[in-house]
Amino acid sequence: MTLNVYLSGEIHTDWRDEVIAGCAGLDVSFSAPVTDHEASDDCGVAILGPEPDKFWHDRKGALVNAIRTRREIEQADVVVVRFGEKYKQWNAAFDAGFAAALGKALVILQPPEHDHPLKEVDAAALAVARTPKQVADILRYVLTGSLPG
Predict the structure, then answer these.
(1) Minimal CA–CA distance to 141: which of 31, 28, 8?
(2) pLDDT in tens, 117-130
(3) 3 phi and psi, to 5 degrees?
(4) DSSP 3-state assignment of 32?
(5) What does the alpha-carbon distance between residue 70 and residue 91 come to, in Å, rounded to a whole number?
(6) Which residues partner with 109 through β-bridges?
(7) What is the CATH number of the domain that holds 28?
(8) Which pTM value belongs to this model?
(9) Which residues form the domain of 137?
(10) What are the strands of the beta sheet with 78-82, ordered from one edge?
(11) Is residue 63 part of a domain?
């Protein structure tokens, strides 16, 4: 049984690579948003044409990205949402809410300083992890029943 895992959220660190490496040997299929920040921001105007107003430029990109995001979350068995330290990830909070509304197994990855501001998001999750290794250990346990060794 392949476990489909969508890795949402913060795109400025290599946390996704750490989770994927920690799941080596497991039957897991990973997907993620476009993590090239410039490509993600500019996809709408690159495909649909320029916008002189930055608001409409960003909106076009957000809508095109939403096609990918919705599809990936709908097809996922588990959705992992990472809230990083550097930026407020409003889109990550939206992804977590969308996944929760669909009844997806939700794992949140966040530092302790986000516990209070994300308490409602965390309440919808089945686990709140602190490290990518913990996320990989959760996925390994789900697939094999094995505890970290």
Answers:
(1) 28
(2) 999 999 999 999 99
(3) -95, 120
(4) coil
(5) 12
(6) 82, 129
(7) 3.40.50.450
(8) 0.95
(9) 3-35+76-144
(10) 28-31, 3-9, 78-82, 105-109, 127-129
(11) no
